[in-house]
C-alpha cells in the first residue's frame, strides 16, 4: 500500500504539471481513436442531420454549364456555398452528427482519380464539423447512378468502387473516430436481378452482390493505413429498405475490428413522406398521425431493434423525413418528432434528411421551426444516457484506486477516454480533464 501511495504521489505531481494543458471533457482531439464499441459511438452520435443536395449533386449539365469548380457542383441543386458558420449552426441547433452525402465522380480524372479540389472542399466541411464537435458520416451517394450497372458490368464497377474508397481511406486516414465511413447510399439492390413484387427469381443473386460489395468496402478500409483499421463503419442495408435489410439473406460483413453499424432509411408511408402531389402509383397524403400510422412506425422500429440492436449490431437511420409542400405543418412536425423518438428511444441514431432551407436555414444558420427544434431537444434529454458518477472513470460503479490509475494514464497520453469516462473524470465539473481532477479524485479516496 505504501508503494502504491508513493506511485500515486509521483503521478499526481506530474498530473498537476499538466493542468494548464487540460482537454475538454466532452470530446477527444480529432485524431484520437477511443476504446469504445460502435454501439457506444452510435449512442454518442445523438441526433443527426444531412447536408443534403450539396456535394451529392450530379448531372452532365453541371459540367456543361458550370465553371469547372467544386462550387459549381456544390451550388447546382440550390445550396449556397457552405461556410463554417453554417456547420457550426447545426451544432448550435442541438445536432451531434452531420451526414455528408457525396458524388465522388464529379470532376473525376482518369483511372477514377478523385479531383483533389473536390476532395479538398469536402474535407474542409468535415474539418469544420469536427471543430464543432460534430460526428461526421461521409458516404458514396447516388453519384449519377453508375452503381446500377453492377449486375451487367461488375468488373468495371468494382474497380471504380475500390478506387474511390482506396483514395478516401488515404485522404482521411489520420482522422479520429468522430469520422464514420458509409459504404453506399440506397443503391445496393437491383430490380434487374430481382423484383421484390415478382417472386423470388434472382433474389439470392442480388443479395449476394450486395453482401460482396459491403465486404469489399470493409476489406479496403481495414487494409488501409492510419486509423482506418479501427474506424467505425456504416454498412448500407439492401436498398436501405427496412423490410429488405431485415431479410436473412442480408449479411453484415466479416470485420476483424468488430466496428460496423447498419444503415437504413425511413420514408414510410411513402404517400406522406415522399409524395408532394398525386402520382400514378399513389395518392398524396397531407396529414399523418393516425393510430395506424403509429402502429406502422413502431412495427418497423421494433423490427430493427429485434433484428439488429438486440443482437449487438448498431443501427443508424441515415435518412428520415418528408417534404413540407402540400403538407399539414402539424403533421410534418409530428411525423419527424415521432420517427426521431421511435428510433432514439431504441438506441438508434436518427439522421434527419434536409436540403437547403427545408428544415435548417443556411442563411440564418438556424432551424426554421423552433417548435420542432424544441421537440428534438426534449427527445434528447428524455433518452440521453445517464451522467456517470464523478470519479468513476472506469464505469464500474465504484470510485477507487483503479480510477486514479486510469486517469493518470490518460493525463500522460497513454490512453484515450470515452465521452462517458471523460465526463466522470471531470471531477471538478469545469469542462476540462486535467491534473486538478486527479488531485481531487485522490483526495476523495
Describe this structure in words.
- By secondary structure, the chain is α/β, with parallel strands linked by helices.
- The chain folds into 2 domains: 68 residues, no CATH class; 346 residues, Alpha-Beta Barrel (TIM Barrel), CATH 3.20.20.80.
- 40% of the residues lie in helices and 10% in strands.
- The chain has 16 helices and 12 strands.
- Strands 2-3-4-5-6-7-8-9 form an 8-stranded parallel barrel. Strands 1-12 form a two-stranded antiparallel ribbon. The chain has a two-stranded antiparallel sheet with strand order 10-11.
- β5, α8 and β6 form a beta-alpha-beta unit.
- The longest helix is centred in the middle third of the chain and has 20 residues.
- 42% of the residues are buried.
- The N terminus is likely disordered.
Shape: globular
Report the sheet with the most strands, covering strand number, pairing sense and barrel closure: 8 strands, parallel, barrel
Uncertain segments: 1-29
Number of domains: 2
Number of strands: 12
Task: Identify the CATH class of the largest domain.
Answer: Alpha Beta
Radius of gyration: 23 Å
Note the total helix count.
Answer: 16
- CATH fold naming of the largest domain: TIM Barrel
Distance between the termini: 13 Å
Q: For the residues shown, what is the average pLDDT? A: 91
What is the CATH architecture term of the largest domain? Alpha-Beta Barrel
Structural class: alpha/beta
Order of helices and strands: HEHEHHHEHEHEHEHEHHEHEEEHHHEH
